[in-house]
Amino acid sequence: MIRLAVDCFGGDHSPDANVNGALLALKQFPDLELTLTGDESLIRNALIGKEYDSSRLSVVHAPEIIGCDEVPTQAIKAKKDSSLMKAVELVRTDESVHGLVSVGSTGALVAAATLRIGRIHGIKRPAFCPLLPTMNGGIVGVCDSGANVDVSVQMLEQFAIMGSIYLQCAYGIEKPRVALLNIGTEAEKGDELRKAAYPALAALPNICFSGNMESRDLLSGNYDLIVTDGFSGNVLIKSAEGTSLELLKKLKKDLLSKPLYKLGALLLKRMFLEEKQFMDYRNYGGSVLLGCSKIVVKGHGSSNEIAVSKCIEQAYRMQENGMTVRIRDEIALIPRESSLPSKPSQKE
Amino acid sequence: MIRLAVDCFGGDHSPDANVNGALLALKQFPDLELTLTGDESLIRNALIGKEYDSSRLSVVHAPEIIGCDEVPTQAIKAKKDSSLMKAVELVRTDESVHGLVSVGSTGALVAAATLRIGRIHGIKRPAFCPLLPTMNGGIVGVCDSGANVDVSVQMLEQFAIMGSIYLQCAYGIEKPRVALLNIGTEAEKGDELRKAAYPALAALPNICFSGNMESRDLLSGNYDLIVTDGFSGNVLIKSAEGTSLELLKKLKKDLLSKPLYKLGALLLKRMFLEEKQFMDYRNYGGSVLLGCSKIVVKGHGSSNEIAVSKCIEQAYRMQENGMTVRIRDEIALIPRESSLPSKPSQKE
User: Which residues of A touch B214 (CB under 8 A)?
Assistant: First the structure.
């Protein structure tokens, strides 16, 4: 039996999207048990008239909600009765609960997960690993994408290890191709951090390191995992998301600008809908916070029920394939005070 | 009279694109004089049959070419007779030559410009400022985008000043709205560099600072200039370029996948061509290397004659409006060892 907590508040469509997403996941996985946290009467209301296996669904009452505009470290202390903190405490105190899913405040989730749930032994800092669609129909993960803005070579090594095991466990990618985000593909490119990280990543025993990559190759499908600091990872992802959204908006505006174009658009309606679906991040699950001693998945605040169920599925797969234990074992293989030459070896 | 040197080799379509671009610019500006550098017989060949004012065009013979795969610092020493170095030396030694345009090796151009032409008094490091199209029909500059991967707060201040004056001189944008690239819009977001840079940029006397911006707003048209380190600037731009190229590629593939779509595509042919034009970086001029004591414009290696003429126009406008002197004067107003508190002031 796999047991997960689902924070049912804090999203744009909460609690309906969260509750319905939970029911979809229960239907999908017969050995899944979910505990929903949040205002019990509102959750019970959302459950009225729905068919589900009630023996695998429980509710923990949590009357408070942490908003996205609250200071995370203050909010997690002040709102112990929030839907998020009740989910976190359940995961922390109940050994049989394997992880949690939330679509609420990112900052509060990171703070609560780090401070209350804790890290896997040996992990310096948890890191986010969201996924984007590639143009050949696959996915690509970016680790870190915002949890850590100042990072060390050792942290980049750990991002590579955690991200690889995540893609193996959740998506069955046997040998994820790992690249280091840089401003050129040659080994000696980049700032001091990148120059030192290159040989360190190349030396990791169980990582399929493909060298440096430029951000223009993000969606090419040539890589499964992109390793970088949280600042540039955030810039990378949001630049791609923003560009695709702006382009679709422009296309839509231009399509309505002439009668002839409107006719063409009519013929292409189905295709444009598919393009929009393709680029909708909600179809690719949540951003996993890797490195915590239990599984933590953060869905987009705008998640609908499908998106929530995908997040729960991600958490399920990770637990099913023993991700946390595998990360702990792999990290234990790497010398603690990292391995790294202070000066990178120069390659031709 | 405005005098510029045009390096006629090192691009994908050299020397024809360079020579023809030069002739277009000569036609456009009656008070422009150009000196073309490169293999004289090849340049003369490209001029055969063309109409132009020969009193405003001269050629300096330079038999060598610096390739993009050469180590920049070695190449600029070893190939003194290259088209690039002849252009650089002309600019360096002839006071009446105001700047140069090249579509060759970026690294060699940066090295040669920095070491041979030199910086404006007070400037720490020259920086690149390429332009992208915004969705409301305008442009946005990003400074730095790759010349400096490790930067200080003082350098970010200088990027803001240089970029603003550039947009004023070359594009007539009176009060460029300057934003600091960050992972959130709140003043206290980001790494140590960004936290310290925010109040420093806000304190600059003649800069219209709009605060932090996220990369998803790159093309929104809300900003005229984005200030950042060369690493994240490079990630930002190439992620946007890569995403738009990949999306267009996908759209094209999908359009050919069904007969109905092909018909729709036929009706939309003109629109799709316009979208492609819109996203073609060559239509937005070159990337200016700001901070050199003379004007330096780097066009894309794949520049056609229109793109080369746009680069020359950029250089012309900058000189016409006294950019270099204005940058020098503005930099002189800023206290030399920057102004900055070691700890940023916290804003609510």
Answer: 234, 238, 242
A261 CB within 8 Å of a chain B CB:
yes
Could you tell me the residue range of the domain that residue A268 belongs to?
A: 119-286+306-348
Which of A149, A258, A267 minimises the CB distance to B191? Answer: A149
Q: How far is CA B137 from CA A245, B225, B267, in A?
A: 16, 15, 24
Contact A147, A128 (CB under 8 A): yes
Report residue B11 as tokens: 């691009």
- Which residues of chain A fall below pLDDT 70? 336-348
| Sole residue written with tokens 């969201």 | A130
Q: Is B325 an 8 Å CB contact of chain A?
A: no
Contact residues, chain B, for A275 at CB < 8 Å? 250-251, 254
User: B326 and B199 in one domain?
Assistant: yes
Judge whether B104 and B83 are in contact, CB under 8 Å. yes
The pTM score is: 0.90
Name residue A327's amino acid.
I
pLDDT digits (tens, 9 = 90+) for B138-152: 999 999 999 999 999
Residues 202-241 of B with CB under 8 A from A: 214-220, 230-232, 234-241
Which residue of B260, B267, B279 is in closest CB contact with A263? Answer: B267
Q: How far apart, in Å, are the Cα atoms of B127 and each of B141, B227, B270?
A: 12, 11, 37
Check if A332 contacts B (Cβ < 8 Å). no
* Angstrom distance (rounded) from CA B88 to CA B76: 10
Residues of B in Cβ contact (< 8 Å) with A240: 239-240, 242-243
Query: Could you say which of A100, A117, A134 is where a domain stops?
Result: A117
Give me the residues of B, 272-301, that contact A with CB < 8 A. 274-275, 278-279
What interface predicted TM-score (ipTM) does this complex get? Answer: 0.89
The answer to whether B256 contacts chain A (CB < 8 Å) is no
Residues B259 and B208 in one domain: yes
Beta strands A177-181; A208-213: pairing state: parallel
Q: Which of B117, B146, B164 represents a domain boundary (last residue)?
A: B117
> Is A86 found in the same domain as A124?
no
DSSP annotation string for B198-265:
HHHHHT-TT-EEEEEE-GGGTTSSS-SEEE--HHHHHHHHHHHHHHHHHHHHHHHHHHTSSHHHHHHH
**Domains held by chain A: number:** 2
Average pLDDT over chain A reads 93
pLDDT under 50: residue ranges of chain B: 338-348
